[in-house]
Amino acid sequence: MALLVHLLACAFGLGSWLAVNGLWVELPLVVQVLPEGWGLPSYLTVIIQLANLGPLLVTLMHKLRPGRLNEAAVIYAVLVVGAVACVLLASFWRVTTVVGGAPRSTAFFIITFFLALVDCTSSVTFLPFMARLPAVYVTTYFIGEGLSGFVPGLVALVQGVGMATCVNVTRNATQNHTGGGGGDSSWPVQTQYLPPLFPPEVFFYFLAAMMCVSLAAFFALTRVPHESFELTTTAGPEDVMLDRPAPSASTGLDNPGLETDEADAGSLPHHDNKQISRVAATVDAATNSGLSAAQLGFIYLLVVAVNSATNGFLPSVQTYSCMPYGNLAYHLSTSLAAVANPVACVLAMFLPNRSLVFLGAMGVLGTGFASYNMAMAALSPCPLLHDSAVGVAIIVLSWVFFTGTFSYVKVMAGVILRDHSHSALVWCGAAAQTGSLVGSVTMFPLVNTYRLFTSGDYCTTVCPL
Question: Is the pTM here over 0.85, yes or no?
Answer without folding.
Answer: no
